[in-house]
Amino acid sequence: MMTKEEITMVGFEIVAYSGEARSKLLLALEKAKEQHFDECNSLIEQANDCLNDAHKAQTELLSLEARGEEIEIGFITVHAQDHLMTTLLLKDIVFHLINIYH
């Protein structure tokens, strides 16, 4: 069973990975505006790696709950979920915007 502190640390991990992905996605959009598509594509790949890491952390919590373990969810965990979901939405929007610049 994970302690509240451990769950909080997973939440911070999700926030950090999601924040890094968000920054890379926005920079990728700027590179697309400048027609620097090699840099843009590299940043998108890096953002995807960050999102995969965030998803792995999220899955860790989901797996605990699915096994029936009691998980004490705090505000940081909710904040982490919010960060991840808005970054995933941003990824979809940035993808469509980049296609406009192509």
Automatic annotation (TrEMBL):
<dbReference type="GO" id="GO:0005737">
    <property type="term" value="C:cytoplasm"/>
</dbReference>
<dbReference type="GO" id="GO:0046872">
    <property type="term" value="F:metal ion binding"/>
</dbReference>
<feature type="modified residue" description="Phosphohistidine; by HPr">
    <location>
        <position position="79"/>
    </location>
</feature>
<keyword id="KW-0479">Metal-binding</keyword>
<protein>
    <recommendedName>
        <fullName>PTS system lactose-specific EIIA component</fullName>
    </recommendedName>
</protein>
<keyword id="KW-0808">Transferase</keyword>
<dbReference type="Pfam" id="PF02255">
    <property type="entry name" value="PTS_IIA"/>
</dbReference>
<dbReference type="InterPro" id="IPR003188">
    <property type="entry name" value="PTS_IIA_lac/cel"/>
</dbReference>
<keyword id="KW-0598">Phosphotransferase system</keyword>
<keyword id="KW-0460">Magnesium</keyword>
<dbReference type="GO" id="GO:0009401">
    <property type="term" value="P:phosphoenolpyruvate-dependent sugar phosphotransferase system"/>
</dbReference>
<feature type="binding site">
    <location>
        <position position="82"/>
    </location>
    <ligand>
        <name>Mg(2+)</name>
    </ligand>
</feature>
<dbReference type="InterPro" id="IPR036542">
    <property type="entry name" value="PTS_IIA_lac/cel_sf"/>
</dbReference>
<keyword id="KW-0813">Transport</keyword>
<feature type="active site" description="Tele-phosphohistidine intermediate">
    <location>
        <position position="79"/>
    </location>
</feature>
<keyword id="KW-0597">Phosphoprotein</keyword>
<keyword id="KW-0762">Sugar transport</keyword>
<dbReference type="GO" id="GO:0016740">
    <property type="term" value="F:transferase activity"/>
</dbReference>
<keyword id="KW-0963">Cytoplasm</keyword>
<comment type="subunit">
    <text>Homotrimer.</text>
</comment>
